[in-house]
Every structure is written in C-alpha cells, then in structure tokens.
Amino acid sequence: MDNIDTAMESFAKILVKEYYGGEWLLPSDYADIKLKDGKKVKVKAQYESSLYIQTRMSVDNWDFDLLAVILFNKKGEVIKALEFDTQKTKKGLTKYCDKDSLVLSFIKDVPEEMAEARPNEGVKNIIREIQNIIDSELKNLPDMLPEKKTGMISYYYIIIEDIECKYFYYDGTEESLKKLYEFAGASKAFTCEDNCGGKIIKFLDDNEEVKAGDYFIKDGYNRLFHILTKQVFNEIFITLEDNKCIPRHIHDDYLWNCTEFDGTEKTAEDIAYEFGDDYEINDGVLCFETEEYGDVELAKGDCMLTNSESGEKIFGRGYSVYILSQRSAGGHSSYNEIELA
Question: How much of the chain exceeds pLDDT 90, in percent?
C-alpha cells in the first residue's frame, strides 16, 4: 500500500476534528484531538491498496481513548471511516504485530488466517457522518476563500518551488485524453476500452476508472495522484497560474520569517548584525560576508529568510502567505493552513 501523503493526512484530521469537535492538542501530545469529556482521539489515514489491506501504522504510545481511521482510495475519496474504542479493540489490533504497531487488516477482505484479528466490539462505522461533512462543508469551496479574521492570522513567507505541484483537469474529450497521457508520462499506464460507442479509461496497474471531471496532481518527485472531485481538489490545494498548485496545509519547515532590505541602514543592520559589523551598501546593494553562506548581496526588496523550524537562512525573495490556523501533526510538529497573501 502507498504511504499516505501529508496533504491527505491533513485532510483526514480536519474531517475527524469537524466530526468530533473538541480542541487540537499540542505537538507534545501523541493524540490529535481532546474532546469535551476529556477523551483523546488519535487520527490515522491510509490509501487503499489494490488487494487487501495489511499495512502497518506505528503506534508507539496508546495514550488515547479513540482511534479514528480514514481510508482513501487513489482518487481521494473516503471509502472507509471507522472509530475504535482502544480499550475494547487494542488486543485485536495488535495481535499480528510486533511492538504494538497497528495492522488495519480488518477494514477490507483479508486472508482467513487474519480474520480473527478483527475486533468483535468497540468499532463504529462513521463514514456516513464523515461523508455528510464533506458534502455539506465543501460544496461551495470552488467559489470561496478562507475568511481572514483580525487577530487570528500570522504572516510568513514560503518558497513556492519547494512545494509546487502541477495539476491537470480531464474533461472527457479526445483532446483532453491525449493531454492526460502526456501529463501522466511514464508514471502511469492506461487502458482504453470501447463500451457501447463510448470509451472507458482505466489505470493499468489497479484497473481504476478515469472519468470526466477528475483531477490529476504531479508532485516534485514526479508521482501522480488521482483526485475524483473538484471539491476535494480545492480542499487540499491552492491553484496558481499555468496549471500549478500548492498544498493548502504545510509543515513548519516550509515557513520562513522574512527581513526585507529596503535600502536603509536600519534594515541593513537588522539583516547583517549576526554575521558581524563588516557590511557596506554599494549603489543600493547590501554586501557582507558569512562563513556559512559565503558572500551575500541583497538588492532593495531582497530578503533574509529564516526557517521557522530549523533556523536555516536563505537570501532572496519568497512569497508571502497568511497562516490561518495551526495544529498538531503526528504529535511531533505543527501543520499550518495557508492562504496566499
């Protein structure tokens, strides 16, 4: 089974938070959500494999009360949503695992010898509720942008090239199909079958059907993702020009604090002070030397960008964004919902 990508994992946590309510827990807590009654919820998400599901999700700490599992197919649709009461189901969940890692073998058809790992009680199907959230909350997203609220917005910079993806919208025409083949390239093979005068397009590797209205995403590693609806696409990505897009939710290490050089001595000092006092401004260009980054030259409008997670610095120009919300992601780092400024 493919590992879940960070954008879809983020989407799963948003859906579960919307369903349960409660509040986000801090990154130091292993669970993701705390409910009003004090119970803690851990969220796990995975993509469906073409056969049965026998995948391991590491659970090193069982300090939570409910486990919510969201299973996506490769089009981005939610096909399973289950809630597990860990007190009632932990024994079954860990029976075929080492070191308490979690096998979700009971979600789909499994070999007979693994069937007994399925819990007999403590499992609740919540797919209807999750799907209702998608249907009601996302139906207007193509025409909406997140509302900016005074006092709730932080301002950062990103390097778009670091997270940029390409997307393609398939409209069902012959011309669009040719472009889809070109867009997918070697990352996917298709079959084309005639059916009552029409054509059925499928992925060769998993026999999944491609229909008009589908979206395709290609990331920086040349991996191809298939997303079924425009609503899901707009929930996960922000569109740019030239059929490019970026994730709507990103990790801390993609956020940069910016100090812009505006041509004055004041901003020159702000940028160069930690590298020493030896700097000069020649014809409006700030020049100074650093041991780690070499010789630096910044024209008016250029910036020193400092990574909010690692403290690393780069010199140049980034793209400003609003941080609309921040939450725990996997208990170890923060995830940020962004909007282009």
Answer: 14
Q: What is the mean pLDDT of the chain?
A: 75
pLDDT at site 273: 83
pLDDT of residue 243: 94
Alpha-carbon span 173 to 179, nearest angstrom? 10
CB 323 within 8 A of CB 154: yes
Q: Which residues pair with 216 in a beta bridge?
A: 168, 226
Is the confidence at residue 235, as pLDDT, over 60? yes
Place of tokens 């199909």: 177
CA angle 323, 27, 104 (to 5 degrees): 110
Query: 3-state SS of 14-63?
Result: HHHHHHHCCEECCCCCCCCEECCCCCEEEEEEEECCCCCCCCEECCCCCC
248 near 238, Cβ under 8 Å? yes
Q: Which two tokens stand for residue 248?
A: 């709507």
The answer to whether the Cα torsion of 257, 263, 269, 272 is positive or negative is positive
CB atoms within 10 A of CB 77: 16
Q: Taking Cα atoms as reference points, which of 327, 306, 326, 330 lies closest to residue 316?
A: 306
Q: pTM here?
A: 0.53
* Residue 52 pLDDT: 37
- Round to whole Å and give the CA distance between 115 and 117: 5
Residue with tokens 């073409």: 50
Sign of CA dihedral 86, 88, 94, 99: positive
Distance between CA atoms of residues 124 and 81, nearest Å: 9
For the record, the structure tokens of 135 come out as 């249907």
The residues with which 104 forms a beta bridge, in sequence order, are: none
Among 234, 249, 259, which residue's Cα sits nearest to residue 323? 249
- What type of residue is 37? D
